[in-house]
Every structure is written in C-alpha cells, then in structure tokens.
Design a protein that fits this description.
Length: 213
C-alpha cells in the first residue's frame, strides 16, 4: 500500500479523535447545566471576629459568620443567578450587638448563559430585626433583593424573596417587586459553613402576623 495514503488515513483518524470531544464535554459543562453550585466558585464561609466598644466603654469582640448568598435573578428577559461573598467588618451595641457594615469580597451575576459585570454589591444585615437585603448595580440600575412579608414587630421570617429595581441613584424607584403581590419573586439561599445551599424551589409563605393583603 502507498505510504502517503497510509499516513493520510492516520492523520485523519488522529484529527477526528482530537477534534470531536463535544459529547464528553457537554454533560460536564457547568454553564450549560445552569447549576449555580457549578457556575460559581462557592467558598465555605467561616466566622470572623469583629471588635467593638461595649456599653461600659470597654473593648470587646464578637464572632459573626461570613454572609455568602446565592439568589435567582429574573428581570426583563434576563434570567440567572447572583452570588455574593461578604464579611461583617463593623458592629454596634444597640439592643444587642448588631452588624452595621460588611465588606464585599466577591460579587458575580450570571444571566442568559454568561457572566456579566456588576458593581457596588453590598450585603446589609438589616438592623436589630435582621431584615437583611443585598444590592448591586447592573446596566445603570440598582437591584435590591429584599422581603415582601413581615410578621409581628415588622420582622422578616424567611430569606429574601423578592426584587426591587431603582435608577442609578438607588433612590428613584423603577419597579417594586416586594409589595404584598410579590411581582418580582426570587429565591435566595444562604451558603452554609460547608459551602452548600438548600434547594432553589420557591417555598415562600407569608409570615405569621402579616395581615397586609
């Protein structure tokens, strides 16, 4: 058999073996699977010690878990997930020791199959009642994950469940999806100390004591 022909057949076989790997990669592609635990590099949150001055004016400290969250995102045809890593860096003695400031270590938004840039991402503890929220800027709008239901004493009873949208100033409202109608629903899950989150099934229920119908 002609040597050139044998070499040509071998080269074609090698090219086919190297080039056709789509079947082996597609099932393992985390972006195509849209699994937030694969899309993001999710860390295992730890506790951080924060110093403050107690009621007697003496130095004190307390530990708080890092607040890492993954939330669904759905607004005007853009669907995906938002991930934030944050650590409490300042507390105050109010009725108890309450975080008043957090440092954002990472914030990522994944929509319609790709990562997109965001800025000014922040987790807020939400005072003594712990009515927490997460905000970030995207496409010259401020998006805020918040609560649509509050129970007795104006306290939220579950994780953030809705989305508010503001103009770039963060004050002028575009859409309040956190009224009692919950017109912009989301599912937010706190990342536990093992780097895991619970299901993103929407299990929202109004808080006991919420009579705003």
């Amino acid at each position: 058999m002609n040597l050139k022909f044998i070499l040509s057949i071998g080269a074609l076989a090698l090219f086919a073996a190297c080039g056709d790997d789509s079947s082996s990669n597609s099932s393992a592609d985390p972006v195509k699977n849209d699994d937030p635990m694969s899309i993001f590099e999710v860390r295992k949150p730890d506790s951080v010690k924060v110093s403050y001055t107690d009621e007697d004016g003496k130095p004190a400290s307390e530990k708080f878990m890092q607040q890492d969250w993954i939330c669904t995102f759905n607004y005007e045809g853009e669907n995906g997930y938002f991930y934030i890593q944050s650590s409490v860096d300042e507390v105050e003695m109010l009725m108890s020791v309450v975080p008043v400031s957090s440092e954002t270590e990472k914030a990522e938004l994944y929509v319609n199959g790709k990562m997109v840039p965001v800025s000014k991402a922040e987790y807020s503890w939400g005072g003594n009642h712990h009515n927490d929220n997460i905000s970030f800027t995207y496409k010259d709008k401020v998006f805020k994950f918040y609560h649509s239901s509050f129970g007795f004493g104006w306290r939220s009873c579950q994780e953030m469940d809705c989305l508010q949208v503001f103009k770039a100033d963060g004050e002028t409202e575009i859409k309040d999806g956190c009224t009692s109608e919950r017109s912009l629903p989301v599912v937010c899950r706190n990342v536990d100390e093992k780097g895991r989150v619970s299901s993103f099934d929407d299990t929202f229920e109004k808080c006991p004591g919420d009579f705003d119908d």
